[in-house]
Design goal:
Shape: globular
Structural class: mainly beta
Radius of gyration: 20 Å
Largest sheet: 7 strands, mixed
Oligomer: single chain
């Protein structure tokens, strides 16, 4: 159980400032109950929706001792641009905390050939930093299909098992952090970032700067690569932004999961907000506008966390910091180290289930929303789906509302530069 909780610490929200500048177990999830309402119309499969699941993933098949808890999966279809030569890739992590599609190169079937993107006559690569790891790989062009939706000519990163240039591994990424190269590293075959922005780096990467994500290379040898300016149109982008009419955001609707964990959970992702009868918001939905970093505010235990975010790509609630001298968390909740002495990971392990309350606040209006959540003992939780898993955070200014927040809710993620009946620009609503 310990291993299944740990490994998804590498999957976290991306560095949001760049968009501005430019555990096995039995049981099952219960049916969805959404006090804030859910999209109207029929549930399940439709032309503008795909099924979501939490449960055993590809890493469980190859490494049963190293499975992943609270990882949200969907299937994505890649096509050679302008053709019907397509292949579906299952177990792609759905991430509202990042932007763009990334697939492990090893998981792209041999029957599909995707041409590499170029800038200035050289091959385009990307170095994508996570909190404690990074992904390196070539940018290619593909048509992306999900349900009845299609985006044409979309830049996609192929994460490769190859040596990255030192500027990537020690400058863009935190020096000494590990490289995500395999299914066992990631716990999925790829990541589809459906957060509130379009390009993953935006205006920041349109000129050369020290922390650029993008590199151009004259060959596959890392020594031939150097950081490069890339127009936004050639950056890895949120595929939803290229869908025909359902491109103003997504709706994530998840079934409830009881305290203590469950063997699985299911849900649906709808494309578009208010564009179809089945993705139209119910009345009473509270809208929290995001700032240019993709953040809103949170108040918890009388402390302000101004850089908070809602992220299906995080497998836990992450809030409060750990003080190694006092061996206590700033929240006062008991912790346990589920990592190692050299790579500690401090999760909350209270002696009994805790019921907590925090208040979210909009970054663009006076709107607030009180949210209740539970904190369980990470040492005793069981299953692939855990609604009460919580851990400390390395950042004392943010409350990371990870996948546990989404269980039993319908959450609307508005895309910047678009509008819906809920409002304009980037927002999270529920």
């Amino acid at each position: 159980m310990k291993d299944k909780i740990l490994l998804l610490l590498t999957v976290f929200a991306l560095a949001g400032f760049l968009t501005l500048a430019g555990c096995g177990g039995g049981g099952s999830a219960s049916s969805s109950t959404n006090s804030s309402g859910s999209p109207g119309g029929p549930q399940g499969s439709s032309a503008d929706s795909v099924s979501l699941s939490v449960g055993p993933g590809p890493s469980d098949m190859t490494n049963p001792a190293g499975g992943y808890t609270n990882i949200l999966f969907a299937t994505v279809t890649l096509c050679e641009p302008g053709t019907s030569t397509c292949q579906s890739i299952d177990h792609v992590l759905v991430d509202t905390g990042s932007y763009g599609l990334r697939i492990l190169a090893s998981e792209v079937p041999s029957g599909i050939s995707l041409n590499g993107a170029t800038v200035g006559g050289k091959n385009l690569y990307e170095c994508l930093p996570f909190v404690d790891s990074y992904a390196w790989g070539k940018v290619v062009t593909a048509d992306v299909e999900m349900a009845g939706e299609k985006g044409s000519g979309i830049p996609v990163q192929l994460i490769q098992n190859a040596t990255a240039p030192s500027d990537c591994s020690s400058t863009v990424a935190t020096s000494g952090s590990s490289s995500v190269k395999t299914v066992n590293d990631l716990g999925a075959k790829g990541i589809i970032g459906v957060g509130s922005f379009t390009a993953d780096c935006g205006g920041y990467c349109t000129s050369v700067a020290k922390f650029d994500f993008y590199f151009t290379c004259s060959s596959s040898d890392a020594s031939t690569c150097s950081q490069a300016a890339v127009p936004e149109s050639q950056q890895v982008i949120n595929p939803v932004s290229k869908f025909s009419s359902d491109h103003n955001g997504v709706v994530i609707q998840m079934a409830s999961v009881g305290n203590g964990g469950a063997g699985s959970a299911s849900g649906t992702m709808y494309f578009g907000i208010g564009t179809q009868s089945n993705n139209t918001p119910a009345s009473g939905v509270k809208v929290l506008g995001l700032n240019g970093y993709g953040n809103f505010g949170t108040s918890f235990q009388s402390k302000s966390y101004p850089n908070s975010f809602a992220d299906t790509g995080s497998n836990s609630y992450f809030v409060g910091t750990y003080d190694s001298s006092t061996k206590k968390a700033s929240t006062g909740i008991a912790v346990c180290n589920l990592g190692s002495s050299s790579n500690p990971a401090y999760f909350y392990c209270p002696s009994s289930e805790l019921s907590e309350t925090a208040t979210m606040s909009s970054s663009s209006s006076s709107a607030t929303k009180s949210v209740s959540f539970n904190v369980g003992n990470a040492n005793t939780l069981n299953g692939y789906a855990m609604s009460d898993l919580a851990a400390t955070n390395s950042d004392g200014t943010s409350f990371d509302w990870g996948l546990p927040f989404f269980y039993g809710r319908t959450v609307y993620v508005g895309l910047d530069g678009t509008s819906s009946s809920l409002g304009s620009g980037a927002y999270v609503a529920f």
